[in-house]
From TrEMBL:
It is an enzyme of class 1 (oxidoreductase). Residues 50-163 form the Non-haem dioxygenase N-terminal domain. GO terms for molecular function: L-ascorbic acid binding; leucocyanidin oxygenase activity; metal ion binding. This is Anthocyanidin synthase. GO terms for biological process: flavonoid biosynthetic process; pigment biosynthetic process. Coiled coil: none annotated. Belongs to the iron/ascorbate-dependent oxidoreductase family. Keywords: Dioxygenase, Flavonoid biosynthesis, Iron, Metal-binding, Oxidoreductase, Vitamin C. InterPro entries: DIOX_N (IPR026992), IPNS-like_FE2OG_OXY (IPR044861), IPNS-like_sf (IPR027443), Plant_2OG-oxidoreductases (IPR050295). It comes from the Eukaryota. Its EC number is 1.14.20.4. The keyword Metal-binding applies. Residues 215-310 form the Isopenicillin N synthase-like Fe(2+) 2OG dioxygenase domain.
Amino acid sequence: MVLTSTNTRVESLSKSGTLQIPKEYIRPQDELTTITDIFHHENNQQCPQVPTIDLNDIVSNDPKAREKCRQEIVKAATEWGVMHLVNHGISSDLINRVKAAGEGFFDQPVEEKEKYSNDIDSGNRQGYGSRLATNACGQLEWQDYFFHLIFPEDKRDLTIWPSTPNDYIPATEEYARQLRQLASKILAVLSLGLRLEEERLEKEVGGMEELLLQLKINYYPKCPQPELALGVEAHTDVSALTFILHNMVPGLQLFYNGQWVTAKCVPDSIIMHIGDTIEILSNGKYKSILHRGLVNKEKVRISWAVFCEPPIEKIILKPLPETVSEEQPALFPPRTFQQHMEHKLFRKNNETLDPK
């Protein structure tokens, strides 16, 4: 049995009993050679390990402990551009509520979720969908999602937030508030790592009033041919920072030192990516790492990604003057956030491994 409708939700494809995925989900040949069994790859102890950063001392009264924590963040942002954050200050109880709310939404029948469906063609990106943007290779991703803005509070549209389960709104609201505070702490450390005043990067990405936090709950159903598909194709995040929770099913891979490395599942952690916005402002000191999501035939994977994005037109993204010199010329041309997204969207296929 082969289903070929591109309008079908991926969850429906997964539950249809099909043994072959539609051709529009099959990756190009050059990618297929790199797709591995995610469970086998996660257990490979020989691969490099994504750094785990303990944030317990990020605002410690002990100057030495505080500086050690900050240096570890800067080192991970410089060498990897991604890290597991532990002791991040957001309680396990709240995180479990956020996860339970997202799982509860996706546990509903597809017909119920369709009441929240978005309409990308009309410019309405918020809501339930199966394809958020045009992909570089033209193929579809093995993923459904729910996407909406969660901060600042005055920019939210609660009418499109799920009413079921009933803890979805309160749990997500509180998580957004606490995550925004964590973003400020990280931006302050990254500013100091560039020898700038603590508030500088926060200001450059829009500040408390204009930095947007967008939540995308990614739902990756079981896939009958995981060796042929990707949950999300290789990309770098356009955001300033991205914070990710997941349901402890592996799937995230990072392109590090010329090879795909699988991120381990670290209990009670939040994965944080440096996005293109911070890479540009830092003139390439901090890395926006290429990454992708694999799927499997045994377990549903869910992730909660919050993208911290500057206002799309108001700020010109370019290397900060303090990061540019004769020895280190500007690596990026000036663009608005909107222009940067369009540049990435319309570049040619052979540039897909180039985050610039």
